[in-house]
Amino acid sequence: MPVPAALAVELRARNEAPSRTPMHRHYLMCPPQHFTVEYSINPWMDPNTPVDTELAMAQWQELKRTYERLGHTVEVIDPQPGLPDMVFSANSGTVIDGRVLGARFRAPERAAEAEHFRRWFSMRGYRELVMPSRTNEAEGDFAWTGELLLAGCGFRTDPEAHAEAQEALGVPVVSLRLTDPRFYHLDTALFVLQHGPHPQVAYYPEAFSPGSLKVLQRLFPSAVIGSAADAECLGLNAVSDGKNVVLPMEATDLAEQLSERGYAPLLLDISELRKSGGGPKCCTMELRD
Fold first, then answer.
1. Does the reported pTM lie above 0.85?
2. What are the phi and psi torsion angles at 249 (to 5°)?
3. Contact at 8 Å (CB) between 255 and 229?
4. CATH number for the domain including 115?
5. Catalytic amino acids?
6. Mind listing the pLDDT tens digit for each residue in 119-153?
7. Which helix H or strand E contains 246, and what residues bound it?
8. Cα separation, 251 vs 231, whole angstroms
9. Is 18 part of any domain?
């Protein structure tokens, strides 16, 4: 009996998809115990929209459990009253080869978060710890490929912070300019799928300036390109271990592309956390010791 054409195409795609190997990751997260939307510092935030803190906690716990089921190590920093966005731990530090560059927030509402994370790193023996002099929102705007640090600017992180990151972390930095206020951090428009000498990324082209887009096309000619629908549900705010990719449940177009490339997408509900403009990556700082 002949195989239907559509099924034949699907089977061929599965057979041709490269084999992916997950790598163990070490993450730092913060529970959304005090999560709410009390102010507006990005287009996603509306203080008049009701927030369900218990639901946000449940969504965060499922994200943490997902990492642990995948075999990753998750550490937790204590949340602090009065800091509702502390759940977005990615914004408070960049760690490469055990070196730490802390954060300096643009919005005064988040400024105190940086000191809590600095203390956490200091108490755990991180000796090469630098606190920035320029505005720098950490992994919100810094994405490590294993070879290069992709660095965003345009809304939060100062362009001058890119040079500071290169000095503090000792890695080459490539600057990328964001132009759409909905995608105010680099991690809302780009994420690294595979690290190493031949890294792979996914990104949403319309979030970048023309020159930055040309840089991305040159550096990553085989990148996964996110659609407008993917971007508008914060689908690019995702976390990959080299095989498994955790992303918002609405990012179905992106998930299909990832499956065709041999990745294993894991779709989670982050609807409550998205009310502050956050997703899986915002909640996840990687500790690259």
1. yes
2. -65, -20
3. no
4. 3.75.10.10
5. 185, 282
6. 999 999 998 999 999 999 999 999 999 999 999 99
7. strand 244-248
8. 8
9. no
